[in-house]
UniProtKB/TrEMBL annotation, chain A:
Name this polypeptide is given: Beta-aspartyl-peptidase
Pyruvic acid (Cys) modifications at: C242
Keyword tags: Pyruvate, Schiff base
MF-aspect GO terms: oxidoreductase activity, acting on X-H and Y-H to form an X-Y bond, with a disulfide as acceptor
Length: 428, 76
């Protein structure tokens, strides 16, 4: 499967009556956007606000961030099975609006939504401060249940990312990058001398607003399976989760997964990137055992020499991570795990809830319990009244002077377990 | 908590969904629970069947508590 990813660099976003991309500027019409969002009768209100890097703006509670994309000359669309018809994606050509994101914001769904500052110490902890954010500030109808609101908010973000992405369909991209993975036998034969490497992509699926969707299906009900990595770049995986902001994978993270990007960069040079195996993180022990059995079995079946395993979230998923690692190592397949830590505010506690001596190669995204002081910013998009209760916040987090003291857990993407952040720790 | 209480000489049964974590942290008597969001019950069952599940977990735990163990033991 071969995907051409055409990148259109967006240098500014301008709101007005026109909708187009011209000279790398994206023109959007907030009225049209609001009309599309409010087609969903579960939402009462929507407003569109733009936040730019360096502005004195705090956005919270942030639910998801989505990069606008579209399929070019294709009968299929991005986010198949969710907002476009179910159809295999990952081949052909896709255009991407780089440098901007659609961000869903507004009244909290669960207790694990995040903060994004566009300026100051908070901005340094999130990759989303570096994008021009098109914020959809949502208000649900009073009578709807939290899970219905979560779905409505999720669909709103995906629909607008799809809508804006289509403005780029006929634009000549600034850069085109090609990614290709061959059917298994051909892929094995292409670089027979290189180590065969796979990627084990763990998806958060604990339910109760902690869910991820694959081609529209709830991933808690899948058994691990194989995807071409390019399918993920076309939105085969979308986030539906309100896990701690710091280490949830937003849909933006899925679309731009840095593990996949880096494996492709080394593909044919240092290694032979064979496949991505997706798996879940469930709440029943037997499901954890079955899924990790399948991960090990599929990896063995593909003849992999080594894998990278990334986690999403923390706590009991640490067990899924360790089970995957252990069962693979026991089959002689080398592993590196990518995770983050909850080691207490002083960093002195045990980092993961589970451990095994076979997990001897670890990349960390940082300690989520570290605290940070965020100065008052001039403008708030969304609302601040949930800061004390979101994960990472505590009683008194929101100070009278408008500043905030929180664990970095509350900052969207701060300790991301795909490595989509700056923070890490190095050791021997 | 399990280990701190046992230090005083009182035996403890850890009822826990994720048995591997319980093994990692060093519990000696472990009884598997139902699921992480509902360890001691199952909202998918009707009240009568759920009571059976709850009773069986408690009975198993009491049995574990009175069973001498030489090493970490999971009472399946």
């Amino acid at each position: 499967m071969k995907l051409e990813l055409g990148k259109i660099q967006i240098q500014d976003v301008v709101a007005g009556a026109e909708e187009k991309i011209e000279a790398n500027i994206l023109y959007i019409n907030p009225e049209t956007i609001v009309d599309i969002v409010l087609e969903d009768d579960r939402l009462a209100e929507c407003s569109v606000e733009i936040a730019k890097p360096g502005e004195s703006v705090r956005i919270t509670p942030v639910k998801d961030v989505i990069e606008p994309r579209c399929k070019v000359d294709s009968s299929s669309g991005i986010f198949p099975g969710v907002i476009n018809k179910v159809d295999t994606v990952g081949g052909g050509r896709t255009h991407v609006l780089k440098g901007c994101g659609v961000m869903t914001v507004g009244k909290i769904v669960g207790f694990q939504e995040g903060i994004v500052d566009m300026k100051g110490p908070g901005a340094e902890l999130t990759p989303f401060s570096k994008l021009i954010e098109i914020c959809l500030v949502l208000e649900p109808k009073e009578e709807i249940e939290p899970h219905q609101y979560e779905e409505a908010a999720r669909f709103a973000g995906l629909k607008i990312a799809d809508y804006l992405g289509r403005l780029g369909e006929s634009i000549e991209p600034d850069e085109i990058v090609t990614y290709e993975t061959l059917p298994l036998q051909e892929q094995l034969a292409q670089f027979p001398e290189l180590p065969k490497v796979g990627y084990i992509y763990m998806l958060q699926t604990q339910g109760l607003l902690h869910d991820t969707y694959v081609y529209g299906t709830d991933a808690k009900h899948i058994v691990p399976t194989i995807l071409y990595p390019t399918e993920i770049m076309d939105g085969a995986i979308v986030s539906g989760n309100c896990v701690s902001a710091c280490d949830k994978n937003t849909t933006y993270h899925h679309l731009n997964n840095p593990v996949i990007e880096d494996l492709y960069q080394k593909h044919g040079k240092e290694l032979n990137f064979i496949a991505t195996i997706i798996t879940n993180e469930t709440v029943y022990l037997k499901d954890k055992q079955r899924s990790s059995d399948f991960v090990a079995k599929l990896s063995e079946f593909l003849g992999l020499d080594g894998v990278i395993i990334s986690q999403e979230g923390f706590g009991n998923p640490d067990t899924d991570l360790i089970m995957n690692c252990k069962k693979l190592e026991e089959k002689g397949i080398k592993t590196v795990i990518v995770t983050d830590e909850y080691a207490g505010r002083d960093g002195a506690s045990q980092s993961l809830a589970d451990a095994d001596k076979l997990a001897d190669a670890v990349v960390t995204g940082g300690n989520a319990n570290e605290t940070v002081k965020l100065p008052k910013l001039d403008k708030v998009i969304g609302q601040l009244d949930y800061v004390d209760v979101i994960a990472g916040g505590f009683d008194g987090s929101l100070k009278e002077d408008g500043s905030i003291e929180v664990e970095i857990q509350a900052i969207t993407g701060s300790t991301n377990e795909l490595g989509f952040n700056q923070m890490s720790a190095k050791g021997v | 908590m399990v280990k701190e209480i046992e230090k005083t000489g009182i035996p403890v049964v850890h009822i826990c969904t994720v048995v591997p974590i319980s093994l990692t942290v060093g519990a000696n008597r472990i009884v598997p629970a139902v699921a992480i969001p509902h360890p001691l019950g199952n909202p998918n069952l009707d009240a009568k069947d759920e009571k059976k599940v709850r009773r069986s977990i408690i009975e198993k735990s009491l049995e574990a508590l009175t069973t001498p163990v030489e090493e970490q033991t999971v009472f399946e």
